[in-house]
Design brief:
Largest sheet: 4 strands, antiparallel
Radius of gyration: 13 Å
Shape: elongated
Number of strands: 4
Number of helices: 4
Distance between the termini: 7 Å
Length: about 100
């Protein structure tokens, strides 16, 4: 099953001019646990999806109380840089949508 079918919210946003945060929320514990227990979310996966060095994956947290996953990554360029393609960091969740969860 695809992540987009399990999560009710998959979003990204600026956490600073240098950091993007990805948030995933699930409406029920079964879907959240299925994704968490799959072991798919690792720093290596995020680095590969976002074409970043693994050192640019700042953290990946499972927040059981709200059935959510938070991921923070360094941006390729700061949000105010002329080469920035997403000033607000709002379009960075796209690579997560097609993840296959088994």
């Amino acid at each position: 099953m695809k992540l987009r079918d399990l999560a009710t919210v998959i979003r990204s946003k600026n956490a600073s001019p240098f950091i993007t945060t990805l948030d995933l929320f699930f409406k029920d514990g079964d879907n959240y646990r299925a994704v968490k227990d799959s072991g798919i979310f690792t720093a290596e996966l995020i680095a590969r999806l976002y074409k970043l060095p693994i050192s640019h994956v700042l953290g990946l947290w499972f927040v059981d109380d709200c059935q959510g996953i938070k991921i923070s990554i360094l941006k390729h360029v700061p949000s105010d840089h002329p080469q920035s393609t997403d000033l607000y960091g709002a379009q960075q969740s796209i690579p997560l949508l097609e993840l296959e969860i088994s």
